[in-house]
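Something for you to look into today, if you have time. What I am after is a single protein written out in full by you. I want to see for myself how the chain folds. Could you add the entry underneath, on a fresh line?
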Amino acid sequence: MDNPAPSKVGGYFKATDEIDPVYGPQVLERPRVLDARERRHGISPAALELEGQVAKHPKTCAVILAGGVGERFGSDQGKQLYEVCGKPLLTWSAEVFDSVADVGQIVIVCPPERRQEYCQQAIDRFPFVTPVSFADAGQVRQQSSYAGVQAVPEQFELIALHDGARPLISADLVKVVIDTVKGDIDIDGAVIGYPAIDTLKLVDRERNIIGTPDRSQLWLAQTPQVFRAAVIREAHQLALSDGFIATDDATLVERIGGRLSFVVGPRDNIKLTMPEDLTAIQAGLKRRLGQSSKQRVG
């Protein structure tokens, strides 16, 4: 299918123990007068912006899934445009990928009837450097993911899929996931996640406990998930042909025998789903922005 023109310019587990998965974002040094929005939230203007950049020959295209209507969150406008610390949730997520030099394009998958609204509210108001294009969301996540993958131009070797409602991901961690795939020719992708810390139970349809799996072999998968473009395209095509539905893209790659690596991520990389998630996300963004301000002063 034809790719939409940019709307603006601009199964094995391997935990990496070498990194600290909690990072602060990079910021622009651009002194200016605080506007009303910044004064209201008590956030410095420099800390509100990540530094957009694109390498000369980027290898990765980011696909940000923003098709959910947010029924459980309870906002009439949906969660993607819900403002947290002065910006729409979707903007926070997209800016992270804009600041990663190896990301040469960002594809935002959203409801077709809201494309203009998403572009105006979450993209056009902010100084993106990486080209941003749009694809139409489907009825379920996998359809949206497929549409996003199909919209990725052929020149990109890697595709990074991310939930738009996970704004606490950092640019440094995105780089680590991308570099993990680039640096190991024996794997087909890498997934952000962390080991399960709670005891998990298997239950039947009547909620009777029927077993307790070994927690030492269980990890919680998050996004971004980065794959070799050819592999994730094949995985989606086969799932579509077979009528197979999964809850994440990694499952589709596992299904065709792909080898995936886990990269240790922070537990605060949560997805805004329920109203109570908002408090944790607000706190995480304010903490990260405060750390950035301290780095600038120092």
